[in-house]
Amino acid sequence: MRGPYASTVISADAGDVWAYLREFGNLHEWLPGVSTCEIEDGEPLAPGVVRRVEGAGGVFREQLLTLDDEERTLTYATLESPLPMRDYRATCRVAPVTDSGQAFVEWYASYEADAPDKIAKILTRGVFVPGLESLRKRFS
Hints:
Blueprint: E1 5-10, H1 14-21, H2 27-30, E2 34-41, E3 50-55, E4 58-68, E5 73-80, E6 85-97, E7 102-113, H3 116-138
Antiparallel strand pairs: 1-7, 2-3, 3-4, 4-5, 5-6, 6-7
Protein name: SRPBCC family protein
InterPro entries: Polyketide_cyclase/dehydratase (IPR019587), START-like_dom_sf (IPR023393)
């Protein structure tokens, strides 16, 4: 099964978008439905750091697995989630659109679940698409 996926083009330099997106503790600033996002354990940008995210969907605890400034990617895992899923891993990537100077941003995930299509729909429609739309508006 293909996991949830969303992408967008932002009218801003890829380096500027990445500089903002790579901040693991700022989710509450740009993801709709998130009321708080706090670094609870570890250095804010070091792999292994844990963030606690609260919002309309409940409480999530997520751990940064990788942060690659050269490739402009970050990958994180969910440690606790109100959603019935396991082994959740998500990646955000920012790439330059070379002919326009814009930024291409994608967000995708993999996980195990008893109802994977239902979870994919929740994540795509409720998190990834509105999140990238909000990020795009932030830079417009």
